[in-house]
Structure formats: structure tokens, C-alpha cells
Amino acid sequence: MVAQSTYVRQEPVSEGSSFVPADPAWLVLEDGVAFQGVRIGASREAGGEVVFTTSMTGYQEVVSDPSYRGQIVVMAYPLIGNYGFSPEAWEAPGPHVAGFIVREATSVASHHLSRETLHRFLHRHEVAGLSGVDTRALVRHLRMHGLQRGVIADDASVETEARAAAIPSLSQQDLVGQVSRASPLVLPGQGPRIMILDCGVKAGIVEALRRRGCEVVLVPHTTSAEEIRVFAPDGVLLSNGPGDPAILGDVIGTVQSLMETYPVMGVCLGHQLLALACGGRTYKMKFGHRGTNQPVIEMPAGLSTGLRPGRVMITTQNHGFAVDPHLPTSLEVTHLNLNDGTVEGIRHRDLPAFSVQFHPEGRPGPTDAEFLYDRFLGLVRERAHHGS
Question: What is the pLDDT of residue 14?
């Protein structure tokens, strides 16, 4: 028996002189609970893990963030699309979400940089979406019962529920392989050469390094340590990306080898990869951290790294896996989440390597932690000074 949500938007949404068809559709979860709405974007079926973000703004960055590959994203904030879409805010050349769900998709894009509305953007890129969904009830359901696989479909039948349950889990999909670049790319700069192991890197990370004068070299996640050494980088950044880090065995081996030679910084998925490379473990969270208001506190381990223990930063996050707090002796915790105590940062006790679970550059969100890129470049300059 399929349970139904109560909030349904019936009226068509005006978009200039035309109308977006208010065709009814459903989000059906694998546990049989279904939420009705009206279609926006592409009129097709779409499936994936259903996640939610609490960000009030930044829906352009969310839709184009490669870390959301394979996921249907629910925006917890009720009104989405009011400032439209502009290419300047994209984190990748196109969208990566499997589907997009909002309570109200506005047809008015009130921003001078806007080039198109939410509906037109999703439709042009063939992304299925729903408006008119009771997202408050949906988010509460996911928080209470955990993230689930779901399908955006024209009906809420038992057969649709079965299709949702049959979607492969994130641990069964090579999502990083779908978003990593196919070949190296060199972005010139006058400063140190930073290699980014691209597991689905956001444009904001690249821009944060380039603003600091770095020459940035992006390489596919399958690039070996030997191939990376040919580029003679001054430091290596392990990027964000989608999916389960534990299935990336070859990448973990590459990180182990790189740590012996170069300063290393990990961000989000890169944080998890660094922990795994040092013998740590990761686990899947009940519903993860996705939003721009996650409070993180620096720990006493920061004394030796120039951090200030006790300082709290508000951070941007997007992850469903986390690092197990029972770390190997080679690692120490540098940051903790103040909401649930999860590990938000680690560093190697002997090697110039550290990582954070959050996004220092924001995009969207606060830039409280952007100084961490400067800290990484400080390790790079220190290594260069010592000639090692």
C-alpha cells in the first residue's frame, strides 16, 4: 500500500507568456511512501538516492555539483528559483543531479545575471523535477527513517515502488568514474603547481587555488602516482566527489604513494580518501550533512598547525559518508561537527597531509574556512624551502 503526502499544488505555473504544464507526478520511495507534486523540467522517469539540503540559496551550485551524481535532491527551503540561473554560478558545465524536488518553483527570475528560469534550465538539460511537494514532510521522513532510493514517476503504484527498491546503492555504482575528467588539463599560474586528483571537483575549489596564483593541473582520478610525478607538482589536492569512498581501491593506493612525496590536502570525498589511505575507515551516515550552516569546531590538535582550538566556523557540506572516529595512530582529529560530533578534519602526525570534510571555499555558503587553502599552500612552500 502506497502512503501519500497531503500537500499537492494543482495550479499551473506561469512563465512569462507561456505556462509550465501542471502534470501530476510522484516521488515514490523504496519503503512505499509517496509524495505527489507537479512536474517541472523533463517529463520522464528518474531514479536515485533521495537526499535533502538545508541551503536557503545556492540551488544553481547544488544542481551542478558533481558530488550529487546519482541522487535526487530535495530543497528543504520552500521557495526555489527566485533568482533564476546564470552560468557564473555553475560548479560544472552542466547539472549532475538525478532529479530535483521543491515545494514551490517560482516562474519569476529576479536577478540581472539570470539567463533562464528553474523550469527552463531543468527542461533544457533533461532533468526531471517536481514542484508542489510537501518537502517538510519529506525531509522529516528521511531524517527519521534514513535516506532511501526513490523514483520520480507518473504513478505511485506498487510497480514504481519496486523500481525504486531495485536502484543500485551508491556502493554499487562507479559514480566517480562518471564525473571525473577524461584527460589532464593545465591552468597556468605564476605560483606553485598544484595537482588536483579530480574525483568530481567543484569549480569553486579550482578558482580558490587560482586566486592564490597557483598553476592548477587537473588529472583523472585513475591517474597513477607515477604519472602524477611526471608533472612534478608542488602539492596534491584530493577533490570532492560522489559515492562510497571505500570502493575506490586504486585511488586509495595512489593517495598512499603520493603522501610519501608531496604535501596533500583532501576536501570532502578527498578527506575520506586520505583517512582510508592511512588505514582508517568510513561509514554511511543516516542522512548525511548537506547545507551551508554546519558548525565545526577546531580541536587542540590545531596548535601545531596554526589553527586556533575552540574557534567555530560555519561551513558548507555535502556528504553522506563520514570518517570513523577510531583513527589509526598516524592521524589526529583537527575538527569536529558541533551538531553530531562527527569527524570534520584530520591531519597526519608526521607527514604534511591534512583534510577536511567541509568545503572551505563555500560555493554556496560562508567562507569562514577558506584560509585552509592558505594553510595548504604554506605546507607547499615549506617543503619547497627545505628542498624535500
Answer: 40
Which of 275, 363, 373 has the alpha carbon at shortest distance from 57? 363
Q: Residue 387: pLDDT band by 50, 70, 90 thresholds? A: low
* Strand 215-220 versus strand 185-187 pairing type: antiparallel
As a whole number of angstroms, the distance between CA 265 and CA 317 comes to 16
The answer to whether residues 150 and 48 touch, using CB atoms and an 8 Å cutoff, is yes
Of the candidates 155, 170, 169, which has an alpha carbon nearest to the alpha carbon of residue 45? 155
Per-residue confidence (pLDDT) for residue 16, from 0 to 100: 41
The phi, psi pair for 242, rounded to 5°, reads: -95, 165
* 41 known ligand binder: no
Alpha helix segments (H runs only) across the chain: 59-64, 118-124, 135-145, 158-165, 175-179, 203-211, 225-230, 249-259, 269-277, 371-386
Q: In a 3-state reduction of DSSP, which class is residue 304?
A: helix
Instruction: Say if residue 204 carries a ligand binding annotation.
Output: no
d(Cα 384, Cα 388) in Å, to the nearest integer?
7
Burial profile 21-45: b = 16 or more Cβ within 10 angstroms, e = fewer: ebeebbbbbbbbbbbbbbbbbbeee
Q: b/e for 58-76, b at 16 or more Cβ within 10 A? A: bbbbbbbbbbbbbbbbbbb
Is residue 269 annotated as involved in ligand binding? yes
Are 269 and 241 spatial neighbours (Cβ–Cβ below 8 Å)?
Answer: yes
Residue in 204, 228, 226, 207 with CA at minimum distance from that of residue 358:
204
Model pTM above 0.70: yes
Question: Residue 170 has what DSSP assignment?
Answer: G
Q: Give the number of other CB atoms < 10 A from CB of residue 240.
A: 27
Sorted by where each starts, the structural domains of the chain and their CATH numbers stand as 3-167 (3.50.30.20), 175-386 (3.40.50.880)
User: Helix, strand, coil: what percent of the chain each, to 5?
Assistant: 25, 35, 40
Q: Report, as residue numbers or ranges, the catalytic residues.
A: 268, 359, 361
